[in-house]
């Protein structure tokens, strides 16, 4: 009986660890969400969005552009451990101007289009996320760019200087 109780206790502890390790769910984008860097209303700007959940923080950090979110991820200066990262699935977005409020995909599962020459919500070149490689390929057929996983996005795609005088396309 003691052996059975010990096994049950170990199983319960493992279950609690799994629950504690489970990442938080994405949060719907609301009219009150503010972009982390500029504190502007995220919903007022088109293009894909990002959200980062930090350990010990009740609400995620929202980003008006995925480019800004990637810059945050590449920065060594953070407030807390990252517990989850989500991006808009632009393959499921109603349009570029309405990227959706709940069509989030885990960033490490997404395919990102880099170098497409499209403008994000804040006017800078955007890194465009998709839940599937096929959706990214369809976007590339129209706008160009390269499909990459999050881990292979080059630093200069998010951290490089931005030439706001360049002509960038705004997808339909």
From TrEMBL:
SUPFAM superfamilies: NosL/MerB-like. It comes from Ruegeria intermedia. PROSITE patterns: PROKAR_LIPOPROTEIN. InterPro entries: N2O_reductase_NosL. It comes from the Bacteria. PANTHER family: HTH-TYPE TRANSCRIPTIONAL REPRESSOR YCNK. This is Copper chaperone NosL.
């Amino acid at each position: 009986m003691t052996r059975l109780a010990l096994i049950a206790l170990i199983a319960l502890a493992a279950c609690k660890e799994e629950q504690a390790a489970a990442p938080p769910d994405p949060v719907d984008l609301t009219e009150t969400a503010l972009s982390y860097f500029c504190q502007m209303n995220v919903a007022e700007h088109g293009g894909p969005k990002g959200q980062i959940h930090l350990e010990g923080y009740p609400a995620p950090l929202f980003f008006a552009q995925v480019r800004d979110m990637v810059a945050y991820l590449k920065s060594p200066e953070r407030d807390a451990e990252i517990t989850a990262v989500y991006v808009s699935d632009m393959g499921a977005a109603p349009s570029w101007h309405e990227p959706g409020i709940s069509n989030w995909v885990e960033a490490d599962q997404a395919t990102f289009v880099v170098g497409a020459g499209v403008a994000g919500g804040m006017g800078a070149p955007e890194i465009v996320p998709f839940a599937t490689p096929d959706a990214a390929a369809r976007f590339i057929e129209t706008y160009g760019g390269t499909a990459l996983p999050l881990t292979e996005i080059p630093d200069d795609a998010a951290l490089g200087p931005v030439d706001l005088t360049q002509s960038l396309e705004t997808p339909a």
